């Protein structure tokens, strides 16, 4: 719910604090090489797979996964509560979340309402808190997404999921509290109908939307947060006031992955639907030229920037800034990623060299929870948990 200027202001404060605390560490580095297969201090470990059976009623779909992950989910929901209570110590806000939020927001469309109710009942976490956990990602996801095309027209899609800024810093080991707590909740999901994969996603247990996923053979999709002064909070207010024609961004991505059957159909929906919050959709297809960054306002698409082999545009990169504007000077992951892609060259691009780019600071930073690599035509989908030991920038 933050405008860009507020984000920048807070980053500046954090930067000054970090700089004085640890006398200006090297926050950037030369493009990494030979980091794949993942190992060493920036690799935390593998991510487990779970099947979500779409043939089950929505209320029951998450039962197995959530039963296993309930303790970790409680930890993070409590941390988010602590943050809220730190701002408004009376506990009033959480009281409203628990008692009033489900009523205020009314029913969510599609399977989401019942899925969240199921998760709430299994864990015993109040529905309002599960809804908050699901809404959080609409506002705080700071990421890097890349789509590349090699000389043969083969597409690859990679992303770093960065999450947890503002939500508390652990001074014992220089980490973000929520970023660390999300690592044990990180899961790969295989959504199936009739025992067959419909789409795959990497996500956090308890979250029913999708921010990272692909449909084997057809398309891949990642979502990055877009900060804007007419930001998501306006959409939420309109929603509460009863104007419910717009889609939550994490939910529209899931619907597209679940129900669209081509790159073109996905692109059409993602450019045209009304959204609750601004966003960047990074969409890849299954053949040459099918890769784009869609810059979204709440009501319309502002820009669709596509791969174009005729113009030697063999990659697209999106972090959290409009491509026609400079990134905030303390957060230039975009140029770092582009520089390393240029350095790699189109001849040498592969999942392994994309992992190198996504492992280079500050593209890799202390908010990075995981890295996902996707090859739509080969059906490859890999997710790795990350760490960024000191010296490493906070975002
Ligand atoms: C930092 O400390 C927290 C809390 O003790 C722990 O959960 C987390 O795994 C630690 N992170 C690293 C990278 O050591
Ligand atoms: C899916 O597979 C399981 C076990 O292999 C089987 O029991 C079940 O009937 C199958 N379901 C469908 C919808 O085909
Ligand atoms: C996908 O379409 C089916 C059939 O129309 C619908 O029941 C389901 O809710 C849709 N899924 C999502 C995530 O919107
Ligand atoms: C690529 O996607 C299109 C739909 O956009 C589909 O018709 C076609 O079969 C796909 N190609 C392959 C090789 O899977
Ligand atoms: C990467 O290469 C392109 C094309 O040569 C160039 O326009 C761009 O400035 C380069 N970017 C960086 C960050 O090196």
From TrEMBL:
Its main location: other. Pathway: Lipid metabolism; sphingolipid metabolism; Sphingolipid metabolism. The active site is at 143 (nucleophile). Residues 143-334, 337-384 form the Choloylglycine hydrolase/NAAA C-terminal domain. This is Acid ceramidase. GO terms for molecular function: fatty acid amide hydrolase activity; N-acylsphingosine amidohydrolase activity. It comes from Rhinolophus ferrumequinum. GO terms for biological process: fatty acid metabolic process; sphingolipid metabolic process.
